[in-house]
Design a protein that fits this description.
10 strands, Rieske Iron-sulfur Protein, six-stranded antiparallel sheet, alpha+beta
């Protein structure tokens, strides 16, 4: 074998070894996603799946107040819900096991309506649109009704409705508690 043949075989071997890496780098993480979906997509908040164990770098969610009956203080004062156009939530996974959004129920302003707030399409956090009485994902415009059901995709799973109530913390402040 002469030098030219040796270099030819070395080059072919390098190309064959690099090909799987190049293909993996050019393939979207979600095979159902087109290249257009990948462009100008806001980076979503990352969150573990609902029943996953914390990784070594994560701490488990901690229940802060009123852990009775499974309710967790989401560390938002009830006073932050000023009217039917406002919403509060928590994406702090050290406090809550899943991202959550809470609004005053449009049908009964004395009641709270709480839902998980992560759109399953890209795990972005949904926002409350009081004018249309719907939750909207800012990443790809998925829309969800008051019952968490999908009004428009690309999301493929509904938001989960949670039980919410007003509680009182040790300082006497009215707080929002959610049962996951």
């Amino acid at each position: 074998m002469d030098r030219r043949e040796f270099l030819s075989w070395t080059g072919a071997g390098w190309l064959a070894a690099s090909l799987p890496v190049a293909i993996a780098a050019c393939t979207p993480a979600d095979p159902t996603t087109s290249a257009d979906d990948e462009i100008a997509t806001p980076t979503p908040n990352s969150a573990p799946t609902p029943n996953s164990a914390p990784t070594p770098n994560e701490s488990a969610p901690t229940e802060v107040a009123s852990a009775e009956a499974g309710f967790i203080d989401i560390q938002q004062p009830f006073a932050n819900l000023t009217d039917n156009s406002s919403s509060v939530g928590s994406t702090d996974l050290d406090v809550v096991p899943e991202k959550v959004i809470v609004i005053l129920d449009p049908a009964d302003s004395s009641a709270l309506l709480a839902l998980t707030s992560n759109c399953n399409h890209r795990d972005c956090t949904v926002n409350w649109n009081a004018g249309n009485q719907e939750f909207v994902c800012p990443c790809h415009r998925s829309r969800f009704g008051l019952d968490g059901g999908i009004l428009a995709g690309p999301a493929t799973e509904s938001l989960r409705v949670l039980e919410a109530r007003v509680g009182t913390n040790s300082e006497g402040t009215e707080i929002i508690e959610v049962k996951f």
